[in-house]
Structure formats: C-alpha cells, structure tokens
Write a structure and sequence with these properties.
Chain A is mainly α and 224 residues long. Chain A contains seven helices and two strands; from the N terminus they run H-H-E-E-H-H-H-H-H. The chains are: A mainly alpha (224), B mainly alpha (254). At the A-B interface, helix 1, helix 2, strand 1, helix 4 and helix 7 of A face helix 2, helix 7, helix 9 and helix 10 of B.
C-alpha cells in the first residue's frame, strides 16, 4: 500500500516529485550504456515480476499478511540503478493505471521505495557482503538482512516526509512508533522472502544475480 | 489492487473523453489532483465541486457505478487508518455520541479521506478512458524518457503472463497440500518465486532475441506521435484551470 493523495501537502509532494525525476534521470545516465537495447525487455520483465510478487500476500502471523516490496530483491538481481528504475516504473504503472498510490504522491513513493529501498538497501547489502563469508550463503544472508533493514528505513523516509509536510495533527512520536512498529514486522518477512528468493536463483543461475560476486568463474554478461 | 488485469482498468467507449489525445488527459489529471491537494480543508464546497466534476466526467464517459466502485476498493486500508486519527490526535476534544474525539483529528480524517478519494477518482477516470497503448504514447508526448515508457510497455504487456505463472504455481502447490499459515512456511513459495524470476528473465532474453531478429536496434519504431491541437489542449486544461481558480477562491475566502 502506497501513500495516497492528501497525506502530505502539495509543496512537499512536488518537491519530492522533482527529486524523484532527477533520480530517474541520474539512473538512466548510469545505465544508459546497457539499457538502450538488450536490457529494455529484460527490465520490463523484471518489473512485471516485482509487480506480480507484490500482488501475492503471504501470511506473516495468523491474521496479518504482508507482501514483498522488492526493492533490495530487484537491486541485487539486476543492479542498483536498474533496480531503482524498475521500482520507479512499477510505482508509475501502479499510480497511473491501477490508482494505487496518489498521482501527487508518486515522488514521495519513488523516494521511499526507490531511493531508500532499492539504492539504500543495495548499499547496505554491499557493506554486509564485505563482512560475511565469501560464498553463496554470504550473498543470501546479506540480501536478506539488507532487505529486512530497508523496510523500516523506507518507513523512516515516510516519517521524514510527514515531519516536513504532513497534514495530520499526530505527534511525531505516534507516527514514528506506528510506522516503525509495523514495518519492523513487515521487514522480517521481506528479509526472509528476499533471502529465500535470492537463494533459489543464486543456486541455479548465479550468473543472473548481479550483486553476487563471481565465485565460480562462469559469469556471463549481466544487466548493470 | 484491481486483480492485476491491466485490460480490466480500461472501459471501452466512444465518448469525447475517450477520443481526446492522451497527453492532454494525463497533464490535466496531474494538474487537477495537485489542485485538490492544495485546497484548504475548511472549503467543503470546493470538494463538492471537484466531486461533481469528476462524477460528471465518469458518467459522461459511461464508466458505470459498479466499475468505479470496484476500482475504489484499493482505498480501504487508508480509510481504516484515517478513521483512527480522531482517537490518536491531540488538541481540543469534542464529544460525539459519548465518545471523546480530537477536533483536529476529525479535520485530518476529513482532509485525507476527501483528497485521497478525489485523487483516486481522477486516476480511475484517466485509466478508464485511455487505452494502455495510448497512455504510453501520451507519456511519450509529455517527454517522459522513452526508455521508461518502453520498459512500462514491456512490463504491462507481460504482466498477465507473469501473474498467470504465479497463479498456476499457487494452484499447483495448493493441490499438493501446501497451505502456508505463517512466515515459517514461506520457503516453497520463495523457491517458486525464484524459479519464476529465472523464467521471466529468460523470457526477457527470448523477447529481445526475437525482436533483434526482426530488426530491433534499441529503439522502438517511432509510433507516430500524434500532436494535440492547441484547441484541444485549451479545452481540456480548462478543467484543472477551473480547479485552480476554486483553490484561489477557497484560500481568499478563508
């Protein structure tokens, strides 16, 4: 569920909209060498995959279910900048076609899930990778932990946006507790499922996992 | 979400709203929603005007009550969250039916519900009257980077295929007795999702090769961008312009 219209005031939403557009522009420049040709259909299919994965709710504990956000998953699978673009495209399609997430809130949502979730999450993943054993298990654990941390971080992004331009008279403490409380739980699910999906892919097609260092020496060309 | 069927988001029709150039509709929708968000919460009449505009457009386009109502369901989690505001917010209290509620919380609830609902209605009217291919053309005309619209196009084209794979996987797993109750049961699901990712990726490669063999060099053939005549721009933008006029009057009359 994404931020709808009216939650954050217009000026703040517009500001984050400009920032998100700048971010997409930067990501396109980063990936420009690759995304022009071969990788466009691939990125489209990965976006469809992330969207589909987001649609299937999974029971977390009885009575409460969550679904994948997929930021770290996409970034580890196809690279941070391409992952960011994929998340932005998913949010655009959800906002414009599915009315999920407000049109004015597109920038806010891209900031939280793309900047913080995909790019920030990937940075955490790289750092964790340094500290973990240099094998497949290291990749899986790092991806899971990074995904788990990225969810409450993205929620913090919302709290910051709320502090700047929130339209609701709630104390910051209330918002912080509510957002962090729920999203730490969601993060546990995100982390576990991300780790297991990455595990399934890295064991059968390690060449498809952009963020996994080449432990086997059989890497082929990947999406950057 | 709307069941994931992209084609179910569009309502076939032949109204003037359907025939408008998509770029004018997209621009108008964004400008309109920003006007809604910028409206002071105290101006009840302004929100009435917006609702009237959107509902008449939806009626004129023949979207139908059921179509709109089903698409509105996506809002339910936020309605529930907003209903909690009067209990959580601070400030002066008012007593309604013996329950103490925060006055500012009630205002916040109204503000968020009104604006989110009107924003949602705007998106529904836009998507309901604009075919997917036209929406992408409209985004192209509005100078959204072509790589982005190309990725969007591929994503939408293959969404039903990938969703279908997820669905078949679920049916296959359930028919073998898989009944996840909590997160600890997620491993088979995640393994299947991983398999679907590999399939999606490989499908992407096949699509690319098929396209390359038909002469694709990285750019889709320029599907003739249809420019919108100035009169059409004027005719469409009059709606958000009116909304911004309402915003100005609403602030002035506070």
């Amino acid at each position: 569920m994404h931020i709808p219209d009216g939650f954050i005031n217009g000026a703040t939403s517009a500001g984050f909209g400009v920032a998100a557009a700048g971010g997409v522009g930067a990501a396109l420049r980063q990936t420009g060498k690759y995304l022009s040709d071969r990788q466009v259909p691939l990125a489209g299919l990965v976006a469809a995959f992330v969207f589909a994965a987001q649609m299937f709710n999974f029971p977390v504990i009885s009575g409460m279910s969550g679904h994948l956000m997929g930021g770290v998953l996409a970034a580890v699978l196809i690279g941070p900048w391409a992952g960011f673009i994929v998340i932005a495209v998913v949010l655009l399609v959800q906002g414009i076609f599915f009315a999920d997430g407000g049109l004015t809130a597109l920038g806010l949502n891209i900031f939280n899930l793309g900047f913080i979730g995909a790019l920030g999450g990937y940075a955490i993943y790289r750092m964790l990778l340094q500290a973990l054993p240099k094998n497949e298990n290291g990749v899986i654990i790092a991806a899971g932990l990074a995904a788990g941390i990225s969810v409450p971080l993205a929620a913090l992004g919302f709290v910051v946006q709320f502090a700047i331009g929130g339209t609701v008279d709630l104390s910051m403490g209330t918002v912080l507790t509510a957002m962090l409380g729920t999203h730490i739980l969601i993060g546990i699910g995100e982390g576990l499922i991300t780790a297991m999906v990455i595990g399934a892919v890295v064991r059968s097609r390690p060449d498809l996992v952009y963020g996994a260092p080449d432990y086997t020496g059989v890497r082929t060309e990947v999406l950057a | 979400m709307a069941g994931g069927h992209v084609h179910a988001l569009y309502r076939h029709g032949d109204s003037a709203l359907h025939r408008l150039r998509p770029q004018t509709k997209i621009a108008a929708a964004f400008l309109f929603v920003f006007a809604v968000v910028a409206t002071p919460r105290e101006a009840f009449w302004a929100f009435g005007i917006y609702a009237l505009i959107l509902l008449s457009l939806a009626t004129y386009a023949g979207l139908g009550v059921k179509f709109v109502a089903i698409r509105m369901l996506v809002e339910i989690p936020f309605v529930i969250a907003a209903l909690a505001f009067p209990f959580l917010a601070g400030g002066e209290k008012v007593t309604v039916l013996g329950i103490e509620l925060s006055q500012s919380g009630l205002w916040d609830m109204w503000n968020v519900l009104a604006k989110a609902t009107l924003g949602l209605l705007t998106s529904i009217v836009l998507a309901g009257t604009t075919e997917i291919a036209n929406m992408l053309k409209g985004l192209d005309a509005l100078r959204v980077p072509r790589v982005i619209t190309a990725i969007m196009g591929f994503m939408i084209r293959y969404l039903d295929v990938v969703l279908g794979e997820f669905r078949r996987m679920r049916v296959a797993m359930r028919s073998r007795g898989y009944d996840p109750k909590w997160l600890g049961h997620a491993r088979p699901y995640a393994a299947s999702a991983g398999a679907i990712f590999i399939r999606s990726y490989e499908r992407g490669e096949r699509v690319y090769l098929a396209m390359a063999s038909r002469g694709y060099t990285g750019h889709m053939p320029q599907s003739s961008l249809e420019h919108a005549p100035a009169t059409q721009w004027l005719g469409v933008l009059i709606v958000p312009a009116f909304a911004w006029l309402v915003v100005a009057v609403a602030w002035w009359s506070l």
